[in-house]
Amino acid sequence: MVERSDRAPLLDWEEVPSAEKPGDVAPAATAAHAKERLSSPSNGRALPGCSAPGFGWSSGPGGPAPSRSVSNADGCSAPPATSSTPAGADEALPPDTEEHPPGSGPRDVSLEDRMVKWEEKDQIVSVFVVTFNTRSGNMLEWCLPKDMDLEGVEFKAIASGSHRVTTDFIYFRKGSFFGLACFANMAVESAVERGARMKSVGILSPSYTLLYRYMSFLEHQVRLQLQSPGHYSPLEAFYEDKRALLPPSGDGVVTALPSNTWGAAINHSMHPEMKITHPAGCMSQFIRFFGEQIMVLWKLALLRRRILIFSPPPVGVVCYRVYCCCCLANISIPGVGLAVPEFRPFFYVNVADISALENELSYVACTTEKIFEEKKDLYDVYVDNQNVKTYREGLKPLLRLSTADREKYRKLTEQRQMLLYSQEENGDCVSSEEDLFILFFLEQNNRIFQTLSEVAGSPDPTITQESVRAMGLDPHGDRLFLLHLLEIYGYDTLLVSEQLCCS
């Protein structure tokens, strides 16, 4: 068993109040610089920033002002990538409040602009408080709106085993909504409470992409609830200010963007839900924790397998691993992957989610409940610590690293070292490990599907050893992975060279 290495560093991601100042680098220039440095695809976009916690998951209650540049702990500033609202604006601009040149007619709003506006809208559909009762266990103490179906949320907002930690945060899914809850455990001199008071304050939204905005607010509110139970007026005011205006149909679809903005998301080089911004060190710590095993996770994510990650509390750091796994499967080539199952994050799950997971074709989730390991029909891949395993015979060969896997990991490691050297020696605050990680795998995925498209359109649609190498794969070690890929993405009409097939 490999020793667990990243329990304590969760503290590194706790929010540090950051000084905000006007941005120095235009997002377009930042993206161009990162693309040139990493030789990313022509339609790839680097997420600007230098470990950018200010545009990460743990920003203030209203989120960072979209047009500001935020300093991180290393003194680097990074302009947020997804908006252009004036500093201090919490909410999206109304459709017609943009400035236009004098005499100009109504400007056509691009899909990208519409996507940005949609993302910036406040989308809070519920706020709640969960408490642990020594007689009844986890209980929903208070919520708005009162008629919201929150059955089971008390077991999501306080993860199993949370009594062993003092603070935590949990991302989760509840029906058609995503949630974020902040948990705290405070010692009290009370025989009734058996010496400890545990509560969690959380919110629900149709999308998880903006939940990070309210991390600090929730952390503050859960501390208040521990110190002054029953004081809900700040939460009531928050809900009235941030509540979402959902479509009359009430259809809950678990996506981060409406379907008509898919084209814009393609231009942003991200799967729609991957527009979520990340905490400083999230990706780099993911790489350090799994090492070469991230190449195995990359293949399984690209194959849209069901991945379940086990870890004892705190669960917040493991929710970040769920996000990182999703980033491994980014593809920015239009039309690719539209017919395959959506690789959706469930974040934290417990036994109450078993029936929901039974119907999922593709997902990545995390849990603190060891019993899930015995539910082998619920997942394809089980990750415990750095150990990646499967009980499916057809997938077991994919757990072995190929020569090409090791070469890709070596290149990724070299690029990280070059970037760290550049940051240390030259004060490079434009690029970050997070950008490098996302672009590295985006480029690998685009390379595979670009080659497959070229082979499919050629007079002789046969995959040869040369075309496999052009994809960055090993003709021998990656043969099974390639066959799975062809079947899942609808390229199974391509012929496979006998030399490749029988090697």
Give a structural overview.
The protein has 503 residues and is an alpha/beta fold. The protein is elongated. It is built from 15 helices and 15 strands. The two termini are 33 Å apart. Strand 6 and strand 7 (177-187) form a beta hairpin. The chain has a 5-stranded antiparallel β-sheet. Strands 10-11-9-12-13 form a 5-stranded mixed β-sheet, with helices on one face. The longest helix has 24 residues, at 403-426. Helix 11 packs antiparallel against helix 12 (433-456).
Q: What is the helix tally?
A: 15
Number of strands: 15
Radius of gyration: 23 Å
Estimated structural class: alpha/beta
Shape: elongated
Strand order, main sheet: write it out. Answer: 5-4-8-7-6
The major pleated sheet works out as:
5 strands, antiparallel
> Kindly state the mean pLDDT as a whole number?
74
How much strand? 15-25%
Helix content: 25-40%
SSE string? EHEEHEEHEEEHHHHHEHEHEEEHHEHHEH
Distance between the termini: 33 Å
